[in-house]
Amino acid sequence: LNTGFHRLPDDSYNRIEALYEWATNPDFGAQHPVSEIHLPSWRAAAITAYNDGLGFSGEINTGGSVGEVFDQLRASVDAEVYEHPRDGLKIKLIRKDYSIPSIPLLNESNTNQIDEYTPGDYADTFNKTTLDYTNAANNYQPAVAVYEDPANRHLQRRAASKSLQYPGVSNAELAQKLVTRDGPVLAQPFPP
């Protein structure tokens, strides 16, 4: 992507760069034409991933499909990748890059009707989130990062676990950062 942010200070590689390779590589990737990629959005995402410390260190042995690997990498940086009709394949990192007052408030005065709204249910949430990774500091032995939400467990009155699979996580700091980012989201009920 020619950003200068392809390699992080811990000697790992930028996850957006890895995602870009899986999207475009003709040998192992999805072979998406580079000419149809919106490079400004990918470059901006690479800089943000660099600043967030989202490095990739390891190898991917594709037992599954290219799409599965792509989706795991995309989820690990908390991004959406979509086809824009004019700009091509764009990436948008899901970040709090807005101000709460700028979000429109929907209420009775500006809404005619709401059809088929179903609120979320705690039965669909998780109170323990784990992420398996290989710990480079311990001779690449398997390790687990854990996030627990005691309030959710109290509300559900049961254990509800979710295991995350993100390739290329090889240190405890990154593993804990990812599981702590995703755990609170998985503990909240959202409408389907």
Produce a short descriptive summary.
This protein has helices at residues 15-24, 39-52, 66-76, 150-156, 172-186; strands at 13-14, 55-56, 79-84, 88-93, 128-135, 141-148, 161-164. The chain is of the alpha+beta class and 192 residues long.
Give an account of the 3D structure:
The chain has 192 residues and is of the alpha+beta class. The protein is 30% helix and 19% strand. The protein is built from 5 helices and 7 strands. The strands form 3 sheets. The chain has a 3-stranded mixed β-sheet. It has a two-stranded antiparallel ribbon with strand order 1-2. A hairpin with a 3-residue loop joins strand 3 (79-84) and strand 4 (88-93). Helix 1 runs antiparallel to helix 2 and helix 1 runs antiparallel to helix 3 (66-76). The longest helix is centred in the last third of the chain and has 15 residues, at 172-186. The model has no long low-confidence stretch (mean pLDDT 94).
Give the uncertain stretches in residue-range form.
none
CA-CA gap between termini: 36 Å
Cα Rg = 19 Å
Number of helices: 5
Shape: globular
Q: Strand order across the biggest sheet?
A: 6-5-7
Q: Note the run of SSEs as H and E.
A: EHHEHEEEEHEH
The helix/strand class is: alpha+beta
Number of separate strands: 7
Biggest β-sheet strands, sense, barrel: 3 strands, mixed
Helix content: 25-40%
Beta content comes to: 15-25%
Mean pLDDT: 94
